[in-house]
Every structure is written in C-alpha cells, then in structure tokens.
Amino acid sequence: MHIGKFTLHSTDGKARTGELHTAHGVIPTPIFMPVGTQGTVKAVCPQDLKDLGARIILGNTYHLCMRPGDEMIARRGGLHKFMNWDRPILTDSGGFQVFSLSGLRKLSEDGVAFSSHIDGSKHFFSPEKAISIQKNLGSDIMMVLDECVPYGADYEYTKKSLGLTTRWARRCREAYPQGSGDQLLFGIGQGGFFKDLREESIRQLIDIPFDGYALGGLSVGESKPEMLDILYHSAPFLPTDKPRYLMGVGTPLDIVRGIDAGIDMFDCVMPTRNARNGTLFTSQGKVNIKRAQYTEDDSALDPECSCYTCRNFSKAYLRHLYQAQEILSYRLNTIHNLAFFLTVVTDARKAIEEGTFQAYKAHFEGIYDT
Length: 370
Prior knowledge:
The chain is of the alpha/beta class. It contains 15 helices and 16 strands. It has helices at residues 46-52, 61-66, 70-75, 79-83, 95-100, 127-137, 155-175, 195-206, 224-234, 252-261, 270-276, 308-312, 315-323, 327-354, 357-368; strands at 6-12, 15-22, 25-29, 31-33, 57-60, 89-92, 105-107, 112-115, 122-125, 141-143, 184-189, 212-215, 244-246, 265-267, 279-282, 285-288. The protein has an 8-stranded parallel sheet. Strands 1-2-3 form a 3-stranded antiparallel sheet. The protein is globular and about 60 Å long.
C-alpha cells in the first residue's frame, strides 16, 4: 500500500469520491471523522465506532499533550495502542485550542506561549514542537501549527497572520520532510474572510508542499452565508489531486454543501455534543428529545436508521433516560447522531457515484434548510 496515495474515483459537479491510503487503512472520501479530543469519542467505545462504520477519528494535540502527555502515550506505543483503535487517526495541531485560550496565550514568530487550562502551568508550542508531539502520538495525519484568526479581524492583521501561518507551515514541513515516515502532514489555509487572502494562503501552501490541504478559520462566529461564501470561493483553489479537509464544520447540511463545493474530509463535535444535550439528527429533521410530546411516543427515533439505538428503543424511552439524567442517555443518543453523520457521507458517496448528488443535496436541503 502506498501511504499518502490519494485516488479520485468519480465526480458529480465539484463533488467527488476517492480513497486516501494511510498506515492504518484506506479512507473512503467524502468522510466524516468523529472527534475524540482526549483519546476517546465521548460516551462511546472503539467497538461502537467500528459498528457504526467510522473509518477515521480525530484526536487533539493540545489536550493530549496537556493530559496525559504525549511522551507518556509514546511510551505505550502511540495513541492507537493506548486507546485500542486500529484504524486511522488525524490529530489537529492544537492551534485552534490555543487560539480559544485568548487571554492565556502570547504569539511570537517562534510560536505561542500559553497557560494550561487545567492547572495554569506554562507551555510553549513552536511548529517543531507541534510536530514532535504528533509524532509521539503516532497519528496517521498530522496538521501544521497555524494561527486561527478571530472573526472580525481586519485586513492588515489577517494578512500578517497569514504570513506567520505560512512560515510556521514551512517549519512544520522541514521538521517532518515529505516521505520521512508513515505519517502524513496537511497544511492549513487561512486568510479570514478576505477572498484574496484565502487564495494567497493556498498558493503559498501548495509551494511547500503537503500531503493534503485544509481550510481553517471557519465556524468561528461568522454567519452561515459568510461561511458558505468563503467555502465555495476557496475550495476550487485547493489542489485537485490531494485530499481537501474542512476543519470543524459543521451541521449535516454544512457537510452536504461542503461536499458540493469539492471538500473530502470533515470533523465536528456537533453530533456528540448535541447528543448529550438531547438534540438528535434524523432523516426527518432534528428531534429535541427533551420535549414532552415524546413522553408516550413508542415509535423509533428514525424509521430510516438501523443503528443500535433506533433498532431497540423508543422515543419515550430516550426521553425518559434524558430526563432522569442517566448515563445511558449519552451513549444511545451519541450512537445515533454519529450513525446519522456517517450515513450522510455514505449516501453522498453513493449519490456522486450514481450522478445524482444534486438531487440528494436538494432533498437534504428540503429537510434541514429551514
């Protein structure tokens, strides 16, 4: 198997299907990656994820470095062995988490100094350190360290930040030269909400180059139309022969529209977080299982879903578990929401292969664009 090989299989408009080869298996695209921030996808175990058809999950460099420590994980054979997951893992660089610390961080050319959200201890992430941590974790796909520009940043700040992100990206590539190991390294395009800067960022990254390319800095407080405008504008500038990753976005409809724009890979905490809050995604729209209308509803959550939750439990029972604050509520709700998100991309792949993606998108918009 040629690690890093990306093969396109079919297209329908800009939507596309393909395969990415990694050290821990082949990933079909488009794909959704459940988020396992701290070496676990909240409320479910690795076998649940396999039963749901998850092909790759995401871990977080910042959180795993803070606790239990990347060197501790390395001594146990890496993240795959530590969490007993034998399929691919993508680790983000920690840039977004450090960005979200706001007052607890300080940026410089060398990297970013910050205080841990756990105990206040002082740390420093340089591009080289971000790569070192991810090498210790042993992820299949590593992300470069970048600065995620806050929404509303002006043109000059965003341009200056873009330059820093590019210089950091080059240092990440130099710290992990192409072909030097079994891990892949993706670049992250920034540029805020300025289309010319988005184009410039991608051009600079292509010159470095990387095994795949991501769009970062979206879903950071902007409106949905603003996000979609930048997405649809930027995606065509990403290389066609490499996987394209839209970071941290978003709703099921966002994913379908991202696929329409030509994106291959997605992650978001929404299915797991919303599950714990009682909001469930179904083929007939969102269900707020907290509502009293489900108190005596004996129907399945989603008649078109074959997940463990939908096969075995009623809305009435799911509501009861949520109201009683039972741990099983988190588990069953999460199983279903992840099943739904994974089905969205599976159905999208099928529609692209059959040349019916626009009809699939229109059907999905009819349910969720309300």
